[in-house]
Amino acid sequence: MSPLYIGLIIAGVGLLLVVVGVVLRKRAGRIASTPLARTGDAARANGVTSCEGVARVQQHQLTAPCTNTPCVYYRLKIEKKVKEKRGGQTSTSWKKLVEQHYGSAFWLDDGSGPVSVLAQEEVDGDLEQTFSGAPPGGGGLGVLANFVPSTVRNAPGEEILEFRAVEKVIRSDSKVFVMGSAQNGQLTKPGTGKLTVSTKGRDALIGSGKRNAMILLLAGGLVSAAGATVSILRPGEAPACGALNDTQTECRVTSKTVVDVESELGGKKTTIKRYKEVLAWHVTKPVKFELAARDPKKRHAAPTIQVENAVGIPMNIDFGLDIGAGSFSTKTKTMKLIPGDYSIYVWSDADGPSDLLLQITEPK
């Protein structure tokens, strides 16, 4: 892959880190700017409110399916490991089957009186992982069979090798921090956002949010700068051919000009389209030179080189037959040149690449 594209990908990753850092900083700022209320006061409040207390079950106890952990909210992800055959290739990979959340309404109480928290919808929170591995309860999906519809279990051409599950919970009777919209004695999600429920506590949540945001912003800035540097400098890539003087290590010839070139083969004239690039070349030595052009990616290029003096007389012969060189490269030698200015014409097939590498050497 070209260093240009590698640099752009790196810069994109850095930009993504910056975006995530900004989101985390805004989240920490929202939590810090929302006053912490007593749960008894939150039950009578209106608007965005935050409070801390112990999560108590209201009516029916929710239990996590893998561990039977009593909880007020859990998230379950189930994946399958599959073997697939495509053509002559066989590959194995993990694919997600389902990722769902299950919540409840619960009481939050810090001793000043309870407030009802509606957490049936997906929450923005820090959950405790209580299970990771093969589903319990026997082979296959075991006790989780009812969580995966039969229509999504199998796909054509797949052989299921095994399943795995990850379970995360917010335990009942645990101390949690909640931030949401208070109305009618209840805390629920604020507008189009999510209800925040965290076992970390308000101060720890603000501190970790600001710290992680700073780390991501700094890392994102550094990664973006590194990506931009790679894109601009393109390490490992040949430089563009500039002013050529005598010999030249490999340099990049890029052409955007397509011209019609007449050729005659077997007494029949044909017209073909070719990329064309003309380079100025200054010679200071009365010697013969060897010029070579190649496509580094070995695609169909069929390059041809022609050297002309100041009055347009050819100084080399390149039949473009690519004998022993392959269709992606060519070599040609000039006659003994006298010091002066010359033009190097580089052609390549219009159906092939417009980027070639050119090299000029003195044959030994």
Question: How would you portray this structure in words?
Answer:
Helix content is 20%, strand content 43%. By secondary structure, it is of the alpha+beta class. It has two domains: 36-201, no CATH class; 244-361, Jelly Rolls (Sandwich), CATH 2.60.120. The strands form four sheets. It has a five-stranded mixed β-barrel with strand order 1-5-6-11-10. Strands 2, 3, 4, 8 and 9 form a five-stranded antiparallel β-sheet that branches. Strands 13, 15, 16, 18 and 20 form a five-stranded mixed β-sheet that branches. A hairpin with a 2-residue loop joins strand 15 and strand 16. The relative contact order is 0.15. The model has no long low-confidence stretch (mean pLDDT 89).
Shape: elongated
Mean pLDDT: 89
| Number of strand segments | 21
Helicity level, as a percent range? 10-25%
Low-confidence regions: none
Describe the sheet with the most strands. Answer: 5 strands, mixed, barrel
Task: Report the portion of residues in β strands.
Answer: 35-45%
Query: What value does the Rg take, in angstroms?
Result: 34 Å
Task: List the secondary-structure elements in sequence, H or E.
Answer: HHEEEEEEEEHEEEEHEEEEEEEEE
Q: Distance N terminus to C terminus?
A: 34 Å
Structural class: alpha+beta
How many structural domains?
2
- Helix count equals 4
Q: Walk across the major sheet and give the strand order.
A: 1-5-6-11-10
